[in-house]
Structures are given as C-alpha cells and as structure tokens.
Amino acid sequence: MNQKKPTVSFKSLLEIFIVSIRLGLTSFGGPIAHLGYFHEEYVRRKKWMDEKSYADLVALSQFLPGPASSQVGIGIGAMRAGVLGGIVSFIGFTLPSVIALILFALLLQSFDVSDAGWLKGLKIVAVAVVAHAVLGMAKNLAPDLKRKAIVLFALIGTLFWQTAFTQVGVILIAALIGYILYKNTAETTEGQMQFPITKKVGTACLLLFFGFLFFLPILREVTGSYWVAMFDSFYRAGSLVFGGGHVVLPLLQQEFVSTGWLSEEAFLTGYGATQAVPGPLFTFAAYLGTIMNGWIGGLFATFAIFLPAFLLIVGVLPFWDALRANRKVKGAIMGVNAAVLGILISAFYTPIWTSSIIEAKDFALAAVLFSMLAYWKLPPWLVVVTGAIGGSLLALF
Fold first, then answer.
1. What is the rounded distance in angstroms from the CA atom of residue 198 to the CA atom of residue 78?
2. How many angstroms separate the CA atoms of 190 and 324, rounded?
3. Residue 241 sits in which domain range?
4. Structural domains counted in the chain
5. Does 339 have pLDDT greater than 80?
6. To 10 degrees, what angle do helices 10-26 and 68-110 make?
7. How many alpha carbons fall within 13 Å on the CB side of residue 369?
8. Is the separation of the CB atoms in 48 and 80 below 8 Å?
9. Which residue, 31, 92, 186, 266, has fewest beta-carbon neighbours within 10 Å?
10. Strand extents, DSSP E, 113-174
11. What b-and-e string marks burial along 74-110, b requiring 16 or more CB atoms within 10 Å of the CB?
12. Sign of torsion over alpha carbons 225, 231, 235, 238
C-alpha cells in the first residue's frame, strides 16, 4: 500500500471529524458491525483507502488488544492526517456514546430508581448480548479441539480463582500453549503496508504503553491517590482486552465491583444501557466513571481506558509487516484468543447470569431478547428498549 504523506490542515481534520462523528451517531451493532460501517464510508463512499489497505488495517486491529473498531478508526484518521488525524477520528467516533452514557449515569444518581423494573430488564439484556457474543466468537476463536481445550482451561481457571491476576496468568499460559501448538501453522502471503508514521513515533508510543502498564501500579501504591488508582484500573483493563469489547466486562467487574467501588446492580445496569447507544462498547467506562466521580470522572475514565488502544495502534503501525510475518507470534495470539473466549464464558455465568436470571420469567425474557439478536437480526438498540419494557412488565407480575 503506497500512502502519500498525510496533509494536516484544519480542513482535513474537520472532514475527518464530521465523517467520524456521523459514524459515532449511527454505528449500532458492536465491533463487527462497526467495521462494516467503516468499510462502506471510508472505502466505498469516500475512497480514502483501497480494499487491501482496509483489510490489512482490520487484521492489525484484530491482532492487538483493545477495541478493534476504535483502533481501525484511529488508524484511518492517522493515515489521512497523521497522529492528529487519529486523535480527531477517535474523538468523533466516541463522543456521542460517551455523552449519552454520562447523562444516563447522572440520571440514575439524581433519581431513586434502584427498584425500577426497567433496570432489571437492562440486566437481562446483558445476558442475551453476552450469550450472543460468546456463540459468535466461538466459531472463529475455537474452531478445533486444541483451542476448545484452551477455552475450557481458561473457563475453569477463572471460575475457581476470581482475581485480576488469574486472568492475566491464564492469558500468558494460553499464549505459551498457542506458541507451542501453532508455531508452524502455514501462512498465506500478504502484501506490504506503508504508514505515514515514523518508527521513532511508533517506538515512543510503545514505550509509553508499557511504561504506564508497569509503573502505574507502583505509583498507585506509593501515592495512595484515588485518581491514580482509578486511572490504573481503567488503563489496565484497556490494555488486557483481547477478542472484542465484551471481554472488558470481567476485567472491569474485577477492578470495580469486587473491590467495592461499585455495586453489582449499578455495574450491570450500565452494561445493559451501553448496548442501547452507538459506538464502541469501551464507552461503558464513561458510565462507570460518572457513577464514581461525576461527569469529570466519566471523561477521565474514558481517556484512561482508550489510551492503551491509541498508543498500541500508533506504535505498532510502522512495524506491522515484520510482526505479522512471524508465525510463532501468530500462534501465541491464537492461544490467547481461545483463552479470551473462556474468560468471557466465565463472566457470562458470574456476575451476569447469577445476578440477572433469578426466576423462570427472567429466563423467558432473556430467551426472547436473545432470539431478537440471533435469529431475527434486530438492531441492538431495539433489543435494549424491548428489555427495558419487558422488565417493567415483569415487575407487575
């Protein structure tokens, strides 16, 4: 892919912002749907990049931890107008859902709605959405018996020892197993890519990524600062998510519910509401931050959870050709992806299922919502609205 040096001007940045915020207002359906919207807008309509370039960028975003659709959007903006273009593209795509979830969290704090039936309905929506995500991911992440065994290992490990360290350990062990089992997997020939980002900038971003990841926990212990602890928790969650936005759920649950910062009910209510808004699922952090520290906390949490994704995509772009050609690295990632599926199934059982499906009528509503997603292919926002109405009706019986 031959790219010209990006033109950084107010006009180009404004164009990127307008296009990305329109996508942020209309992109419902999760990361896979988002990639479809991006393809239609950036490849077919705007012709900012060709089919091969887009496919290569999507492959990179799937390879890295973090929210895939957001990283693709950042990458497209960076190709168009450098690092600043990536920042503007990210802001445009993310801002609508961040604002919506901050307002939702403020509404919950202003009114006593703890016993509202529609909140129960939103918790049941989470059951349907995660079940649908698990089934969809299983086809791609665990197609053979070896990877199914890794899924089972991750599931059992995270159910028996429910700590954040367990999840990291499971991912590392799965990476080693994947490396051993799949290091000789045959590769298809792929073309080269060229990005308008220097290796010096890429190296600086990668150093920042790992520097924050390793030194924030130390700074947290030394300072005892609430804000440093909050930043560390969201940053670490954003750094360790492989396999899609839904996987951030168990990481955030361990960081904030298990430690007592948030109630389980508030956590699952926000997760259900996140399904109703367009844009990336990672904006769930905006809701969590607002519940803990008002709208400033919402913006702070959003910055912290997305920062790793930005540093990684900008940092790896200049080195992607050499990295993706390494079969051993790809083998490790195959193992990690299978472990991610096991972690997600574990989170599906607890806290999602155990706190939402209490009676037979709860399961009935979950079955209806799942059918709307999986079989009737209805948009997620409609499923959320149906869940809220259904929860209100169930409260009457």
1. 12
2. 9
3. 114-394
4. 1
5. yes
6. 60
7. 32
8. yes
9. 186
10. none
11. bbbbbbbbbbebbbbbbbbbbbbbbbbbbebbbebee
12. positive
* 58: in domain: no
Q: What is the pLDDT of residue 375?
A: 93
Answer whether residue 29 is part of any domain: no
- Residue 93 belongs to some domain of the structure: no
pLDDT (mean) for 381-391:
87
Three-state DSSP class for 24? helix
Of 353, 147, 338, 151, nearest to 249 by C-alpha is: 353
Q: How far is CA 79 from the centre of its chain?
A: 22
Here the tokens at position 82 are: 């450098």
- 251 token code pair: 């990481």
Phi, psi angle pair for 388, to nearest 5°:
-65, -45
**Bond prior to 318 in cis (omega within 30° of 0):** no
Rounded Cα distance between 280 and 206, Å, is 23
Residue 74 lies in a domain: no
| Structure-token match 């079969």, residue found | 327
Tokens of 272: 């259900």
What the block records as the tokens of 204 is: 């600086």
pLDDT for the residue numbered 286: 94
Q: What are phi and psi of 46, to 5 degrees?
A: -80, -25
Residue 149 has pLDDT above 80, yes or no: yes
Q: Identify whether the C-beta of residue 236 lies closer than 8 Å to the C-beta of residue 228.
A: no
The answer, yes or no, to whether residue 97 has pLDDT greater than 90, is: yes
